[in-house]
Amino acid sequence: MLIRLVIGRALSALATALIPTTLTLVVLMGSGDAADLGIVLACELVPMLVLLPFGGVVADRFPPERVVLFADLTRCAAQAAIGVELLLGVERIADLAVLAAVTGAAAAFGTPAVPRLVAATVEGAARLRANARIGLATSLSAVGAPAIAGALVLGVGPGWASLFTAVLFAASAFTLGGVRTARAAAPTGAHSLLSGWREIRQRPWFLVSVMGHGVWHFCAGLFLTLGPLLTVRSGEAMWVIIVQCGTVGMLAGVFAAPRLPIRRPLAGCAVGASLYAAPLAALAVPLNGWAVAVAYAVAMFGLGLLVPLWETVVADRIPVEALGRVRSFDSLISFATRPLGLAVAAPLAGWAGTAPPLWIAAVAVAAASLSVLGVREVRTPAAPPLAAPRR
């Protein structure tokens, strides 16, 4: 069952990560209009953000494998429709925008269902190892997706690239949809949304952590926008090196997470997130490109630790019948703040220069991430520890 989860999540992550690059190249090779590109990408993001809370309700109401099945099949159909249109020589921005919106809406329902699916099929000490393996597979998929999308679009054409994405979603749907879990009923409608919010309010550790994650994602948007501009002085290939060092660091963190004797997993998550202050400060100084690369590798190592620890501790501490609604709030904050950071980075740098926003971001991400250490539940050791060190 674990192998099925890992393969299914890797396929879904790869397909999801292929879409932005494919759509970007389709629009740029077609109209070449930046406004058209913004419309198409926004049409995927906005429905997802709006519908995520309702996706959490659905994930808690119905068996998660069914929700994932229908969500991925819907995304499969939307991507297949884009591929067929492109192969027929039809390239209407309105069509791309509508199909992108369908894709984003389906993602809003599939995203909260995945943590429920993992929690319902993997229990106890095995859950951290499962989340680490899933995190490793999805990270590799996300890292390789832009190169794969570019090669497909330029090599065989954007239509075939979209059809390939559709095939991946179909494979993910039937892989994850074949998992069987026990059905847990939950209330429906507005009461369900309100009860989900009550679950969050009763757990200060979750609310403070998620707010910290939002600050982290916003600051990551600043770094990913200003980083390429500021590191070019070290050579045109320097940014690529920095990104690859970050990838290595993240994979190392994911690999290490289940092998460390972590008795306070929420504290580990907080420290891991706070490490993102290092590359922000390195850019603000500014240090040379190699120093930024090392700092970014450290930051992404922290992220690699955070992801499986967070997935595991939330599944352990949140009732399974509320997990979809609670995690939809987590996803909403993360998905909303990263694009905001990407959007405001250049205007902020133009107004105040690059150093002040980066220094403020470094302090903010460290303070917001570590603030959760003031919550009593975070300082309480887990019993038993999530994972024992491997010899």
Automatic annotation (TrEMBL):
The alphabetized UniProt keywords are: Cell membrane, Membrane, Transmembrane, Transmembrane helix, Transport
Any one cellular component term from GO for this entry?
Answer: plasma membrane
Instruction: Give the record's membrane topology.
Output: Multi-pass membrane protein
Q: Name one GO molecular function term.
A: transmembrane transporter activity
Superkingdom, taxonomy of origin: Bacteria
Pfam families to which the protein is assigned, alphabetical:
MFS_1
**Transmembrane feature ranges:** 12-31, 37-59, 134-154, 160-179, 205-226, 238-258, 265-284, 290-310, 331-352, 358-375
**Chief subcellular site?**
membrane
Cell location: Cell inner membrane
What is this protein's record name? MFS transporter
Q: Which organism is it from?
A: Nonomuraea dietziae
